[in-house]
Amino acid sequence: MPHWNPHKSQMKLPHELSVNPMFALEGEDAVPRFRMRDQGMLPETAYQIVHDEIILDGNARQNLATFVTTWMEPAADRLYAESFDKNMIDKDEYPQTAAIEERCVHILADLWHSPHPESTMGVSTTGSSEACMLAGLALKRRWQNSRKRQGKPIDRPNIVFSSAVQVVWEKFANYWDVEARYVNVTPDHLYMVPEQVLSVVDENTIAVVPILGVTYTGLYEPIAAIAKALDDLQARTGLDIPIHVDAASGGLVAPFLQPDLVWDFQLPRVKSINVSGHKYGLVYPGLGWVVWREAEDLPEDLIFRVSYLGGNMPTFALNFSRPGAQVLLQYYNFLRLGKDGYYAVQKTCQSVAQFLSAAIGNMGPFELFTDGSDIPVFAWRLKDGYTSNWNLYHLSQQLRTYGWQVPAYPMPPNMEDVTIMRVVVRNGFSMDLAHLFLMNLKQAVTYLDSLDGPMPHQTKKDNGFHH
User: Fold this and answer.
1) In the chain, what are the domains?
2) How far is CA 320 from the centre of its chain?
3) What is the pTM of this model?
4) Which 8-state DSSP code applies to residue 376?
5) For the chain (length 467 residues), average pLDDT per consecutive 10?
């Protein structure tokens, strides 16, 4: 089956849009699709064109693929509408927004047990991808500066993570000329383990990057055990290899659901942590955070100072202009929920995840990979030999007929012959919706089981967009 190309499909559409005559002025009955009109149009007409097209998008509440927040309460929506024009970079024009950003950094540093939460460094970003890039750059520069002081070469840095790492770390290694060293996940170890880490690190390793909430499965990697192995390595060899924790999904779950888990700045080897504010931070898309253990863990030569916005402002984000509203929404959540509120939200999500995973695990066709005990995410596979008529890609497509988006995808290299499905339970996916989803899932399986012959061959490339 040929791979669907959205651009080519768009080009097959008529090159003019027809407009509802009730909204259009004379001359607005047709609108070019791929070039700009010479004349403008009424705001109502422009609105209606865009509005009519986006009703074809999926229902965000039924999207069980994405980790990104799709619902906030009305008061947050009102605050968003009042602050969407704020530019986070312009700290001279918006000094209180800048002050609130700094407060959020200190709140996160305290939540993650920084030894000096009131003075350490951190910054908001457009998401965890940018936060990871900044953390990676700081680690590379820190390694380079140390090597220079020792009179050693700096031309062959490497970084270590599991093969189940999020693609941003592959991008980081590619963009900034750092060798990526992968620890392959296996059926026995679905995450990076200390013995594997020690087999690939050396004096050129700028950091090891364990994941607090693996995208594929929702599992926490054993960060404390990895740190202990690196401590032992340093005691034997003198090699001092730092850790950056990619806590994009788990950084605002573990402090509330697993408060006794040691994974953060309680481990001196952990030098920086990133989190997605727009995931389990419960903020609309466009927000990440990166925080360093102590101020000296962020090299000073990565901080730039600009004066052309009216004040002499330090900046060390990759992006320049970016929205400030999401930062205000993060602070709103910190105020609104507190620790007890975050616990209640995340615990509800986990309860829904564990209810669904138990029900799906008890269905004949399926075998659970994970059950939602770490972050509220679980995954399952089709039992070997259950059927040759359909696979999880077919099930994913069948669920779309009910409006549900549930991804099916292969595991990382070394396990790519294993296909799994994954559900991400977010705030707003209630137990009632979970029961409705389970009903539709059973209906989809019943339909597929009734087939007299195999469905047409299908691969991950034919399964729409992935998150």
Assistant:
1) 6-57 (no CATH), 76-335 (3.40.640.10), 342-462 (3.90.1150.160)
2) 21
3) 0.91
4) S
5) 61 73 65 86 87 89 94 96 86 84 96 96 94 97 96 97 94 97 92 96 98 97 98 97 98 98 98 98 97 93 68 68 91 98 98 98 96 98 96 97 96 92 96 97 97 75 46
